[in-house]
Amino acid sequence: MFVSAVLLLVCLYFLILKTRRPRNFPPGPFALPILGNLLQLSLEDPLKYVEKLRRNYGNVYSLFIGSNPAVVISGLKVMKEAMVTKGVDFAGRPQNLFINAITMKRGVALADYGLSWKEHRRFALMTLRNFGMGRTSMEDRIHGEIQYLIKTLESNVGRSSMGNNRNITNNLIRHHGSHHLI
Q1: Where does the secretion signal sit in this chain (predicted)?
Q2: Looking at the predicted structure, is the pLDDT value of residue 87 above 70?
Q3: What single-letter DSSP state applies at residue 23?
Q4: Whole-model pTM?
């Protein structure tokens, strides 16, 4: 009995610590353990609640979405300062164990801003450019393939799609498309 009470107190202590605001964190409403501010958000008119928080705490305040802290900025001047003047400081993505396990800390879209992200972005852009991104020649090829596909489909309207006819049409479309794109 005593051990379970001590374990319960330790768990509650860590839950409360998890929802405490870190140092140098903007002010915000009181957050519940585990749920954070989710119960306070209005489902009917969330913008009204956000506006109320802006009036109470200013253009920069914090919320807890579950047990994860989030900083909310509003107002053109503050947004411009955050995104333009201090863009590198705000360039990261939220990281958690689930996302890191899926992406293995690689990739571009969900990766945190840093040297690895820059290298992956550079590689992705270089590869896409090698495949024709940004060139009109690739666009012309794609339009040609679409025209051929439309013409092939229109010529087969009303024909039976059973048996070999379907396979011949599919193989013809795939062969022609892959032959010209590759």
Answers
A1: 1-19
A2: yes
A3: T
A4: 0.54
